[in-house]
Amino acid sequence: MRSLFILVISLFIVTVSVAQQPSGSTSDRLKELAKAKKALEEAKNKEWDAYLVRVAESKLAKQQKKQQDSITKATTKVVDDLNGFTKCDQPVLPFFKVKNSISEQEEEIPFIDFFRKHVANKFSYPSFAIEHEIEGTVLVQFLINKEGNPEIMDARGPENGLVLEEEAIRIIKAMPTCVPAFCDGKPIKVSFALPIKFQM
Hints:
By secondary structure, the protein is of the alpha+beta class. Helix content is about 50%, strand content about 20%. It contains five helices and eight strands, in the order H-H-E-E-E-H-H-E-E-H-E-E-E. The chain has a three-stranded antiparallel sheet with strand order 1-6-7, with no helix packed on it. It has a three-stranded antiparallel sheet with strand order 5-4-8, with helices on one face. It has a two-stranded antiparallel sheet with strand order 2-3. The chain is elongated, with a radius of gyration of 27 Å. The two termini are about 45 Å apart.
């Protein structure tokens, strides 16, 4: 209470001292406003330039990873059967077990249905993207591994859309563990490529 009282008194003194100062001319005020606006624009431009450096670094890292992956694939031979594909007589896609709040029963929700709800619940438009008017669709490629957890493979967004790609990756990584895909009773990993749309 005492600190609140001191704060109110301080504000009163500052207000009185400001009110007693002679007011500058309109042109002086306009000059100050123009200076402040210019400083704000310069800060925004510096922030954008720093972001573009991050975008360039990310593109370079993706290129290097792609080259490394192609080298690894060329030197590694993985053959599940004669055609190079896993044959599956009884495939089961990933799904989520969720407790129904009304019936108290566990329900099985298909992966895609759960994914849509998850994106809607976890979606947060990055403030940087709003300030710099960045929008578009991010295509996220990921695996659901044998344990039912997501593993990000790639995220491709619009030009200079790194901040959107990072948000899409954050959303996917926040997904809870699901029941993995099964092939003839054995858990397998499956890949998905799903879009997340960012529109202001």
